[in-house]
Amino acid sequence: MWPYHRCVAPHAYTRLTRFALWALTAIVVTGVAVRLTGSGLGCEDWPTCSEDRFVADLEYHALVEFVNRLFTGVVAIAVIAAVLGSWRRRPRRTDLIVLSLGLVAGVLAQVGLGALLVLSELDPRFTMGHFLLSMVLLWNAAVLDTRARNDIEAGAGGRPPDGTTRLMQWAVLVVGGALLVTGTLVTGAGPHAGDSRAERLPLLVREVARVHSIVALALLGMAVWTWWRLRAASSRGHARMGRIAVLLVVQGAIGYTQYFTGVPVLLVGIHVALASITWIEIVKAAHDPAAGSAKLLEPSPAGGEPMVGVQP
Prior knowledge:
Structural class: mainly alpha
Number of strands: 2
Number of domains: 2
Distance between the termini: 19 Å
Number of helices: 9
Strand content: under 5%
């Protein structure tokens, strides 16, 4: 960490926000690994692993779950660094402080929900909530990372999109959120519960998967149309929207393959990891400062304090 009396330059702070974003993404992947390996109840108690042991026994499922819990420490370090950095950043930005504190609230909520998930023996409703809260945290971290770069990327080229295109960017965000919700319904009704004792949602996988695919196709169509409008207007955001469209095509191919091949564990893991990356891209597209969605704040004096990341 940096000395308390020193300030943090904007470009140095972006390294902290990026660290927080990818730490939160990584713990989504490790959490999915817990479920896909059937290790959801490898540690049957909380916060200890078992009733009389804090550390897991040398048993496969217990170790998988315990390592996932330990990775929460990495997330905590990343979030604390983002909070302290937002306070010491110059120019200080209130929006960055608020967003970084939002990460703290989200991580604490995840810890509480994780405890309920274990104590309820992986109730699928808590499993869905746990994942969706992770996506809210990724939204928070992605917005924080995007806004932290405003001061640095303020002079980047590209025209801002027109009103209709901006509306479409926000619509892609809303439908992207709906796609995540329908995806959790498929997971809640599917075979990968995290443990053989866990209940499943009383839904037909075939029906919820059909709804999920319809939402995905609608989102793909919206993304392609928005990309075309952004590209025609020479807007800076067209490259990101193009990546979103490509990711959705890849996700669709993986989704259909896993459905018709018996939902293999590896494909499910890749599907969820790419879903997290796609969601981050969608959030950043909607909050792109070039589109006027994030107001650039006037810098405030640094008070003559030395900055980390600035050459003297």
